[in-house]
Design brief:
Shape of chain B: globular
CATH superfamily of the largest domain in chain B: Alpha/Beta hydrolase fold, catalytic domain
Strand order of the largest sheet of chain B: 1-2-6-3-9-10-13-14
Strand order of the largest sheet of chain A: 3-2-1-4-5-7-6
Number of strands of chain A: 7
CATH superfamily of chain A: Vaccinia Virus protein VP39
Structural class of chain A: alpha/beta
Oligomer: heterodimer
Helix content of chain A: 25-40%
Distance between the termini of chain A: 34 Å
Number of helices of chain A: 8
CATH class of the largest domain in chain B: Alpha Beta
Number of domains of chain B: 2
Number of strands of chain B: 14
Order of helices and strands of chain B: EEEEEEEEHEHEHHHEEHHHEHEHH
Number of helices of chain B: 11
Largest interface: A-B, 20 and 19 residues
Helix content of chain B: 25-40%
């Protein structure tokens, strides 16, 4: 299993009901179905992604996250997952509230805008960072809600989202001790497992 | 016959299934047997697991693909989708398409002779529901030798039949493909059907439905009914792009003999419809649409109504379809998810309104084709080519 998928799979119980927001080509759900026998559903809007999901036997629903998740009842999933999508949604706060209404827990992953390469590019060149993990220019980026790990964690504190667990990885989705030294400087992606406000 | 022959099922011949036993309807009424006309395309494989049932919409019939004769002007109503290499690929699937009970294209309906009286049924023809159709289709499947369909597929009223199949016969289909449909009609949708019905019922030639022996039929009412329906199957943008304010004749400056293109089109479509369709069948079909509501007996809870379903679902809707909007499809999707069923959905960009489901829109065709190919790989044994040879 791909390392980033394995990281998430480790957090999912067997036969859980899983909702994947922005499921892309369905790799995660396909892997979870195979390895964890989950009942999974993915939301996506891209026509090609939907076709790919169909060929993988993934339950893919053509639904725009920016229109909300009001159609899903409270507590209807064990886990709601959103991988590398947070940074491109219109209303992350309400979306995350919705995720924790629908699911007992959720997993959110996103790229770190506080990574040293981003900081260095902005500081040294005076231009918006473009890198391997954030490959867009300012004018064509779908990433309208970029944040750092620190930003995200203070946001969770304000909204009283309970951070159960955080895993920080490099650009190859590998964990290492140096990342945890100064995660907001060295970490490329973070995986947050969140619970309801306590 | 015009157009390319390359991926057509070619010349097809309608067949007939005669059910000779008493058939009990949901209403409590009975029919002393019935006949269904149907067509098949492609070949049934040895294990008989590659059959697909096509359920037609309000004005459809059994002739879904191919041509009846070289002189035909048009192929079957869903020829865009059914044929070798097409979305419903007859190289893979054995396709069964019928004219529903109550229809007017050869199956037993109001214009058939009632064996009890020797005259056309007319007003005596019983109310038929979507459940009744599905039950009669299951008898047809028995007759053709199909225990389990790979898929039951339908658009609009046809989608309602696919949904009902999954509920009534959970072990007789692997997949239900529900296109531009709904789990019940909204008040607005029923209202449009009632307008259409009133157009027919108030035609002086309707005579309570017993007009078959007369020289005149309620063709004017039927024409109006079709025109009302037709407008609701299109979208504002779609009509504007197609007709705009173009004039067929006359001069707007003096306001004389003005006929807009859209008027001419609607009148033509309405008149053409009366030549091939029966007013009583139109009433019967619109009522079946209105009464359809599988959640009604499950506390109006659709996911509860779907509890015993085993079929996988594909739900397709179109952005400009306001008669069977994406919202209505989403309700089915949500109920399927809530009851832990397998479902994929696609919302197709289109300006062609409800009629989109009959059009060769590239994303629509590709999505349907991909879904059915995967279904074939998962559930059908692959001797269909051998069986064909």
């Amino acid at each position: 299993m791909r390392s980033d998928l394995a990281l998430i799979a480790n957090l999912i119980n067997r036969e859980a009901r899983v909702l994947d927001l922005g499921c892309g080509e369905g790799e995660l759900l396909a892997a979870l179905q195979k390895e964890k026998a989950v009942k999974g559903y993915g939301l996506d809007r891209d026509a090609n992604n939907i076709l790919t999901c169909i060929t993988k036997g993934v339950n893919v629903i053509d639904q725009d996250l920016d229109n909300g998740l009001a159609n899903f009842p409270d507590d209807s999933f064990d886990m709601v997952i959103m991988t590398e999508t947070l940074q491109s949604v219109r209303d992350p706060k309400n979306l995350m509230k919705e995720m924790l209404r629908i699911g007992q827990e959720c997993i959110v992953t996103f790229p770190n805008f506080g990574h040293w390469r981003c900081r260095a590019q902005l500081a040294l060149t005076g231009r918006m960072p473009v890198s391997q993990h954030l490959p867009y220019f300012w004018h064509d980026t779908p990433n309208i809600r970029l944040c750092t790990f620190n930003d995200f964690e203070s946001f969770c504190a304000e909204e009283r989202f309970h951070i159960i667990e955080r895993r920080v990885v490099n650009v190859s989705h590998q964990e290492s001790s140096i990342l945890n030294l100064i995660p907001n400087f060295f970490g490329v992606y973070a995986f947050y497992r969140l619970g309801r406000p306590q | 016959m015009s157009g390319s022959q390359d991926n057509s099922v070619g010349i097809v011949k309608p067949q007939r299934f005669d059910h000779r036993d008493t058939f009990a309807l949901q209403s409590g009424q009975t029919l002393q047997g019935f006949s269904l006309v149907y067509e098949t395309y492609g070949a049934l494989n040895e294990n008989k697991d590659n059959a697909v049932l096509i359920c037609h919409a309000l004005s459809g019939n059994h002739h879904a693909a191919g041509w009846h004769s070289a002189a035909d002007r048009k192929p079957g109503w869903w020829d865009q989708c059914i044929g070798p290499g097409k979305a419903i690929d007859t190289n893979l699937f054995f396709v069964v398409s019928l004219n529903n009970l109550g229809g007017c294209d050869g199956s037993t309906g109001p214009n058939s002779i009632d064996p009890a009286t020797g005259e056309a049924f007319g007003s005596a023809f019983p109310t038929v529901t979507v459940s009744d159709w599905v039950k009669s289709q299951a008898l047809l499947a028995d007759y053709v030798g199909i225990q389990r369909f790979a898929a039951v597929i339908g658009g609009s009223l046809g989608g309602m039949q696919a949904l009902q199949w999954a509920i009534d016969y959970p072990n007789r289909l692997y997949a239900a493909v529900v296109i531009a449909s709904a789990a019940n009609l909204t008040a607005q949708n029923i209202a449009f059907n009632e307008l259409a019905r009133q157009a027919i019922l108030t035609d002086e030639n309707f005579r309570k439905g017993d007009y078959y022996a007369d020289a005149s039929t309620p063709s004017h009412g039927l024409m109006l009914a079709r025109m009302i329906g037709h407008v609701t199957y299109l979208s504002d943008n779609g009509m504007d792009n197609r007709f705009g304010r173009d004039l067929r004749s006359g001069d707007l400056a003096v306001g004389e003999n003005v006929q807009f293109e859209v008027e001419s089109y609607l009148n033509y479509q309405g008149r053409a419809f009366t030549e091939k369709f029966d007013a009583n069948t139109y009433l019967l079909m619109t009522r079946a649409l209105d009464y359809f509501d599988p959640a009604r007996t499950s506390n109006n809870n659709l996911s509860q109504a779907l509890a015993d379903v085993t079929a996988k679902f594909m739900i397709v809707s179109f952005t400009s379809d306001w008669r069977f909007s994406t919202q209505r499809s989403t309700e089915i999707v949500d109920a399927l998810i809530a009851s832990n069923k397998d479902v994929v959905s696609a919302v197709i960009e289109s300006e062609h309104g409800h009629d989109s489901f009959l059009l060769p829109l590239p994303r629509y065709i590709e999505t349907l084709k991909t879904y059915l190919q995967c279904l074939h790989q998962a559930h059908c044994t692959s001797d269909s080519l051998a069986a064909e040879a």
